[in-house]
Amino acid sequence: WRVLAIYTILAANLSEQQALKQACPSCDASQLCNCSSMGLDFIPLGLTAKITVLNLAHNRIKRIRSQDLQQAVNLRALLLQSNEISSIDEDSFQSLAKLELLDLSNNSLAHVSPVWFGHLFSLQHLHLQGNSYRDLGQSSPFSSLRNLSSLHLGNPRFSVIRQGNFEGIELLHELWIDGSNLSQYEQGSLKSIKKINHMIINLRNSNIFSDIVRDLLHSVAWLEVTEIKLPVEKKSLVQNSTRPFRMQKLTFKEAFFTDQSISQAIVLLKEITSLKELEAIDCMLEGRGKWSMEEIISSGQSFVGTVTVMRIIIQNFHLFFDLDGMESQINNLKRLTIASSRVFMVPCKLARHFSSLVYLDFHDNLLANKRLNETVCEGSWPSLQTLNLSLNSLKFLEQIAKYTSRLPKLNNLDISQNNFGEIPDVCEWPKTLKYLNLSSTQIPKVTTCIPPTLEVLDVSANNLKEFGLQLPFLKELYLTRNHLKALPGATPVPNLVALSVRRNKLNSFSKEEFEGAQVGAVHLSVMECHRSLVVSMICLLVFLVILVLVAVGYKYHVVWYVRMTWAWLRAKRKPKRAPPKDVCYDAFVSYSENDSEWVENTMVRELEQACPPFRLCLHKRDFVPGKWIVDNIIDSIEKSRKTLFVLSEHFVQSEWCKYELDFSHFRLFDENNDAAILVLLEPIQSKAIPKRFCKLRKIINTKTYLEWPAGEEQQQVFWENLKGALKS
Q1: CA atoms within 13 A on the CB side of 251
Q2: Rounded mean pLDDT, 574-585
Q3: How many CB atoms lie within 10 A of CB 527?
Q4: Residues 6+ apart with CB under 8 A from 147
Q5: Are 462 and 482 in contact (CB under 8 A)?
Q6: In angstroms, what CA-CA distances link 75 with 94, 113, 141, 227?
Q7: Residue pair 676/642 in contact by the 8 Å Cβ criterion
Q8: Where are the domains of the chain?
Q9: Do 260 and 289 meet the contact criterion of CB atoms below 8 Å apart?
Q10: Do the Cβ atoms of 353 and 325 come closer than 8 Å?
Q11: What count of other Cβ atoms lies within 10 Å of the Cβ of residue 391?
Q12: Model confidence over 36-50: pLDDT tens digits?
C-alpha cells in the first residue's frame, strides 16, 4: 500500500504538471508564467516554487481557492486583473509572504477582506480598483501591509470612506482613488497616513472636496483631482489641519470652474503656505474672467511660483476680460505655461507686472505678429530667460526678432512650427540669445538674420539646400530633414561639437567639406583627452591633501589649539575674578585619574575634615552633567579661590589634565597671581611637561611647590604648608 500511495502522489504531480503545461505553455521551465488572455476559468494546477511572476490577467476566473497558490511560495508578482473574480478564500494568499505586487483590479469583488492580506508582509503594490464594493468595511483592510508603497482602489459604486479605513498605512508613494460617486467621507479618514508623495482622486461630489483637502495638507506632496466641479467654498481650507503643511503641487484635470469658484479658490489656496505649483489640464471655465479682484487683492500675496494651464476650454473666449487688477498677484510667479488654450494676446499692462517670471510657454495658441507687439511690449517680462512660442500663427521673422529684442535677459527662444516662409537678411535679436529653434518653419535658406551669438541652433524640417553661415560660438547644429546635398563647412563653425544631418540628400563627402585642422596637427590638452582620468586624479589629490592636513592637525594638536583658543577668548570676556558671592570653593583640584586614590582618600579627607574644613571642587563629584567639559573646567576654576594641581607622570600624560593646565596657563599664570598651588606627588622632570606650556615649565623651575614626602613626620609639615597656602 505504501508503494501504491507513492505511485498515486507521483502520478498526481505528473498530471498537474501536464495540466499546467497544457493550460499555460509558457510556464514550462520558466520563472515568468504568462497565462493572460487564454480563456481560463480557474487558476491552473501545478504551480511550483520556481515561479516568481504569474500573469493570469484577462481570463474568466471567478474564484481563488485556498490550494490554488499554496505551492507558489516564491511568487513576487501576481496579476489577476480583468477577470470575473467574485470570491477569494480567506487563506488563498497565506503562503505568498514574498509577494510584492498584487493586481485584483477590474473584477467583481463585492467586499474587501483584511484576512486576504494578513500574510502579505512584503506587498508593495496593491490594485483593487474597478470592482463592485461600496466601501472598505468598518475598519482597515490594509493594517498588516507595512511595506505598501502604492494603493489603487475605488470604482463607480464606491460611495463611503470611513474613519479607520486607512489605519496601519504610514507612507505611500502613490494613492489612487476612484471616487466618482463618493457621497460620504468621514472627516479624518485619510489623516492617519503620515506621508503620500502623489495622490490621485476622481471626485465629482464637490461637497466633500474641502474635507479631503484639509485631511491631506500635512501628508500629500502632490494632489491630483479629476472631474470635480469646483465649489464656491467660503470655509477655510486649513481649518483643523495638521501643521506643518506638505502639499507643494495641486493639479486639476477635467475640472469645471466658474468665475465665482475660481475667485474663491485663489483666495483660499493662499492659506496653504507650502503650495508652490498649480496645474489645470483639460478643464473648462464658464465665465468671462469677471473675478472678485478686491477680495483676491486683500487676501495678500500667493506663494505659488509655477502655474501650468493646458487645453483649457473657455466658452466665448473672445469675450474674456483682460484680468485687469491681477497685477499685484503675479509679481512672484517664476514659471508660466498656457498651452493649447487659444491665447491670442496678453495685455501690455499685465505683461509688465510679471517681474520675476523666467520661463514662459505659450505653445499651440493663436498668437499672431500684430498681437505679439502688445504681448511683448517695452518693459514687459523683464526677467524672462526662456520663451516658447511654437505652433502659433507667427509669420514675419524680422518682426519676431524686433519684439523679442525688448526682452533684456532672453536666453532661449522656441518659435518652431510657425510658417515664416521667407527669412530676411538682417534681424535685430536680444544680445543674450544663445538657443534658437527654427525647426518646421518653412524657411528656404539661412541668412545673417540668424544671430551670431547662438550656441545652439535647430533648423530641422525646413527647405534648406545648403548651410554656410558664420556662427563662431555655435556648439550644436541640427539640420535633420532638409534637402542638403553637402555637409556644412567646418571653418564657419569652429566650436561645433554636435551636428545632426539625418534624413537629408547627402550621398558623398568631399575633402573640402572637412577643411580645417588635420587630426594629426591638433594638440588637445590632457583634460580634453582624458577628462574622467583628470577628474579622478584631482579628486584623489584633494583627498590626499585633506588626509595630510588631518594628520598634521592631529600631530600638532590643531584641534586642541582651535578649541582652547575659543574657550580662552570666551573666558577673556568674563571678569578677571569672579565676584565674591560667586566663589563656592576654596580650591579646584586638578589631578590624573591614576592618582585618584591618593587625592580622594588621603588629601580630600585631610582637607575637608580639617577645622575649619576646606571646600574642594572635584571633577567626579562637582562637574555639571551634560555640560561641555572645558566649560566645566573654566567655571570650576573661576568659582574657586585657588587651583591645586597634583602633578605626577600620569598627570602630564592625561588629555583632560592638559586642558586644565591649558586654561590655567591662559587664565592664572598670565595674570601673575599666586592662585595656582603645585603639589608634586612624585619626582617629575620639567621636560615631561608639554612644550606648548612654556610658562608652566618655567614656573616649575622657579616657583616654590609642595612635594609629598615619604616619611610621616614630614607629611604633617606638608599638610600644614598646604593648608597655609590655601588660606593665603
Answers
A1: 17
A2: 66
A3: 11
A4: 121, 122, 123, 124
A5: yes
A6: 12, 21, 22, 37
A7: yes
A8: 585-727
A9: no
A10: no
A11: 19
A12: 999 999 999 888 899
Q: What is the rounded CA–CA span in Å between residue 492 and residue 487?
A: 12
**3-class SS letters over 647-677:** ECHHHHHCHHHHHHHHHHHHHCHHHCCCCEE
CA angle 644/645/649 to nearest 5° reads: 165
For strands 249-253 and 220-226, give the pairing.
parallel
Contact 365/337 with Cβ under 8 angstroms? no
Cβ neighbour number for residue 103 with a 10 Å cutoff: 21
> DSSP label at 207?
G
Q: For residue 523, what are the CA distances in angstroms to 225, 372, 491, 513, 526?
A: 59, 49, 18, 21, 9
Instruction: Report the C-alpha gap between 389 and 375 in whole angstroms.
Output: 12
Higher pLDDT, 619 or 252: 252
Report the SS3 class of residue 239. coil
Q: Which residues contact 158 (CB under 8 A, 6 or more apart)?
A: 133, 134, 135, 177, 178, 179, 181, 182
H or E segment to which residue 127 belongs: strand 125-127
pLDDT of residue 319: 72
CA pair distance 20, 35, nearest whole angstrom: 10
**Strand arrangement of the beta sheet that strand 313-314 belongs to:** 256-258, 284-286, 313-314
- 585-727 classified as CATH 3.30.2130.10: no
Give the pLDDT confidence of 368-399 residue by residue, as tens digits. Answer: 999 999 999 999 999 999 999 999 999 999 99
What count of other Cβ atoms lies within 10 Å of the Cβ of residue 27?
22
Report how far Cα 24 is from the mean position of its chain's Cα atoms.
Answer: 45
Task: List pLDDT tens digits, range 448-474.
Answer: 999 999 999 999 999 999 998 999 999
Residue 689: closest CA among 710, 719, 664: 664
For residue range 293-321, list pLDDT tens digits in order: 888 888 888 889 999 999 999 877 777 77
Q: Give residues with Cβ within 8 angstroms of 595, minimum separation 6.
A: 646, 648, 650, 651, 681
Distance CA 404, CA 387 (A): 9
Q: Are 496 and 510 in contact (CB under 8 A)?
A: no
Q: CA nearest 313: which of 278, 287, 347, 277?
A: 287
pLDDT digits (tens, 9 = 90+) for 76-131: 999 999 999 999 999 999 999 999 999 999 999 999 999 999 999 999 999 999 99
Taking a C-beta distance cutoff of 8 angstroms, is the pair 500, 477 a contact? yes
Distance CA 325, CA 486 (A): 56
Please name the helix (run of DSSP H) or strand (run of DSSP E) that holds residue 701, with its range, or none. helix 694-702
477 in Cβ contact with 494 (< 8 Å): no
Q: Using one digit for the tens of pLDDT, what is the confidence trace for 639-654? A: 888 888 888 877 776 6
Gap between the Cα atoms of 437 and 151, Å rounded:
42
pLDDT in tens, 142-183: 999 999 999 999 999 999 999 999 999 999 999 999 999 999
Q: Grid coordinates standing for 398?
A: 524680422
Instruction: Report yes or no: 124 and 149 within 8 Å, Cβ to Cβ.
Output: yes
Average predicted confidence (pLDDT) for the chain: 85
- In the chain the first and final C-alpha atoms are separated, in Å, by 108
- How crowded is residue 396: how many other Cβ atoms within 10 Å of its Cβ? 16
Buried b (16+ CB within 10 A) or exposed e, 423-458: beeebebbeebbbbbbbbbebeebeebbbebbebbb
DSSP string, 466-516: ------TT--EEE--SS--SSPPPSTT-TT--EEE--SS------SGGG-S
Residue type, 634: I
Cell 503643511, located at residue: 245
C-alpha cell, 425: 537678411
Closest C-alpha to 689, from 660, 717, 653? 653
C-alpha cell at 548: 595630510
- Note the pLDDT of residue 535: 84
Q: How far apart are CA 436 and CA 457, in angstroms?
A: 5
